[in-house]
Amino acid sequence: MAVKISPLHCLDVSGPIPAHLARSNIEETLRTAILDGRLPCGTAIRQEALATLFGVSRMPVREALRQLEAQGLLHVVQYKGAVVAPLIADDSLQTYELRLLLEAQAIRLSVPLLTEEDLEAADGHIEALEVETDFGKIGLLNRQFHQALYCKAPNKKLLALVEAGLIEEERFLRFNLEHMNLGKLAQDDHRALLRHARARNVEMCIAELEQHLQRGVNAITQYLKSQKPKQP
Length: 232
What we know:
Elements: H1 22-35, E1 44-45, H2 47-54, H3 58-70, E2 74-77, E3 81-84, H4 92-110, H5 116-131, H6 135-150, H7 156-180, H8 183-198, H9 202-227
Antiparallel strand pairs: 1-3, 2-3
Helix pairs in contact: 1-3, 2-3, 4-7, 4-9, 5-6, 5-8, 6-7, 8-9
Protein name: GntR family transcriptional regulator
Domain HTH gntR-type: 20-87
Organism: Pseudomonas saxonica
């Protein structure tokens, strides 16, 4: 009789975790595994199995799963518990519309306050993206580039919402780059965003951001069309 392998066997867990770091450690470990595809869509994530694996109580596990649900990476399904969310949800296009509103406001608040150090950090992420080939690391660098431009916005709740949107995008960004060859276009957009930020041209930054996010909308639309069953 074949032994059923737990879907959590792919997680890298080393040694006991200090109690105060348990929630963040579990959240980051699961997020990384979801984003890089080790935990594919539809995988059920059992609280008790996670608690045993990490050697913790269920409380930090529940908190980590709530955070991942808020980031759109997990869904809670009746009788199954937490399940890895689909690559593209029914409301993904609405998510991009919301991202434009939130990130445009972050640009308005942040760009006038950016320091040369912030701009150099953004430029460094672009340079790192030029040579990185690991799609998981590319997603992180993309998020860090955008956050470098938004970091001076004083509204912390706004920045938390922006970060959640960027994290939600990472899985589909990987799909875009791997299957649709959008890497160069994204880099061109990043360089234009940084150029306008250096010039403190907020409105041009927002216009460039809109074009940048529209590429994501187009890719999602194309993906959803490809998933529709063909008419006989």
